[in-house]
Amino acid sequence: MRHAIDPKIDCVFKALLGADENRRLLVHFLNAMLGGELGAAITEVQILNPYNEREFLTDKLSIVDVKARDGRGRRYQIEIQLLGYPDLLARILYNWADLYSQQLESGQGYEQLKPTYSIWLLADELLSDRAGYRHRYRLRDDAGRELIDHGGIWLFELSKFAAERVESEEQRWLKFFRDGERLDAAALPAWMDTAEMRQAMSTLKGFSEKERAYHAYQARQEYLREQRSLQRALEQARAELEAARQAKEAAWQAKEEALREQEAERQAKEAALREQEAERHAKEEALREQEAERHAKEAALAELARLKAQLLDDSSQA
Question: What is the rounded distance in angstroms from the CA atom of residue 244 to the CA atom of residue 239?
Answer without folding.
Answer: 8
